[in-house]
Structure formats: C-alpha cells, structure tokens
Amino acid sequence: xxAVLLAAAVGFALGYAAHRVRPLSALDAWAWDQAHRxxxxxxxxxxxxxxxxxxxxxVFAVEVAGLFVVRPRQMARQWRHRNDPPxxxxxxxxxxxxxxxKHTARMSAEQEGTDQ
Length: 116
Hints:
single chain; 116 residues; 5 helices
C-alpha cells in the first residue's frame, strides 16, 4: 500500500515538473532553431552539414508520427490537401459613383413622405 502511494506521489511530482519545465516544447524550439533560424548563417557552409540539422529532422519526424498516431484522420486529410490551390476569391464589390446623390434623394423623399 505504501509503495502504491509512493509511486503515485512520484508520478504526480514528475508530471508537475514536466508541466513546469515543458521539455517537449523546449525540444521543438531547439529543432526549429537548428533547421530554420540558422539558415541566415551561411558563412560557415550549408546548414545541412551540421549535426544539429539532422537531429532536428529526427525530432520533426517523431512529431509528425506522433500526430498521425493521435489524430490520424485529420493528419491524413491535411496531408492530402497540403498542396491544394487556395479557394476562389469572391467577386470584387462594385461601388456606385452616384451613391451619395441617390442616397440624398432617397432620404429627402422619405422625409417628405413622413411630413405629410
């Protein structure tokens, strides 16, 4: 009984610590830093030759695989439609250059109708 309570307490403590530290978020930030932000530093050679770039690709592969495990239908749909063209745009609104004059005439006609 004590072992179960101790295991539960340790589990809660580890869960709290993981929530506070957020190691997966930090790992993702590191991977994005390795893959994208260092592109501007081309003076030392191509980014892909660095070991960090290959590690970042492994992190991204695990993230995508995890998403396919957790939300398979949504990920499959998004993967199928990733290169679709954007939806067609709506028609361009047409503005009447005589709108102000027509509006004034309509308002004065309505006002004359209420004065009677």
